[in-house]
Amino acid sequence: MELGIIGLPQSGKSTVFNALTRGQAETRGEHGIEGPRVGVAKVRDPRIERMSELFPTAKKVYAEVQYVDMAAMPGDLGKTQGIAGRYLNLLQKVDALLLVVRVFDDPTVSHPEGSIDPDRDLQTMQMELAFADLGILERRVERLANEFKGAKPPERAKIVEKQAILEKVKKGLEDEVALAKQPLNDDERKLLADYQLLTAKPVVILWNVGEEGLDTIASVESGHSGDEADFMALCGKLEMELGRMELDDETEFRRSMGLTQAARDTVVERCYHTLGYISFLTAGDDEVRAWTIERDLPAVKAAGKIHSDLERGFIRAEVCSFEELDKYQNFNELKKLGLLRREGKTYTVRDGDVMNVLFNV
Description:
The chain is an alpha/beta fold. It contains 14 helices and twelve strands. The strands form three sheets. Strands 2-4-1-5-6-7 form a six-stranded mixed beta sheet, with helices on both faces. The protein has a three-stranded mixed beta sheet with strand order 3-9-8, sandwiched between helices. It starts with a strand and ends with a strand.
């Protein structure tokens, strides 16, 4: 899972990046740093910890999230069509976008607009995403018009159909309706998927509050619970400082402040939910591992996430739930009880399934 972090200048975007990755990236003067920052964070999963107890010789391998902090932000982002070129190409590749919105008030970090207005800043970023998509669509429409001139009659009908779809989507964007919210059928979405439009991507909005706003996080989130985009509030500065502690010290400090879960774990949970991802597990004496897949994926495709040979030569999968393995502690006992099921290619893998794939190539 790859997540792109974007935000207006002085929004605390790089601070949030450090909080999510337990990183040490520079958080001031980021405008002059070339290229994006990339950080990888392990997906905390208590099931892996438990399985490592059942298989004490096994190596623990967690699922991972890759965060891309667009450090070299265009100077005109938030003014007019600032998302372009290499910056646009990087955003097109991510699975989802994290929009960091400044809520904290710090006199030592001046806001480019001279005032703190989260709703204005969020609208600015959403508008910039739409501008970027409109630019992509306009170039594509122009290309189709040129193709139409040299096309044969049977080909022209398909070109006209594509043009109509693109014009419809453009009209929606001009009316401030993101692609993800437009009523499109499966064929239309399949066509548009090739263009990697930004407003088609799942979005999680991160409200970046100051330490003085910690006690308002729950109320702020509940106030946005009906929003179409996923939303959460966090204190990026505090989360970054806590993430730089030793894990035991961090846990104790969180407990003393009444903080239950690290924001880095909550963000991953929200992104899994927004993207429709789940994890299945594999276990043995050599390795216990979590694998991230799309929800409702058939077993043969899930096997392909492990290795293409397993998908190509799939015979069947031996499956139990994590809860069953946790209770009976080994596969032999599960077999005796008839709880280690044999599933075929079309079996829909569920979150927490422990799966062993039998294959032949």
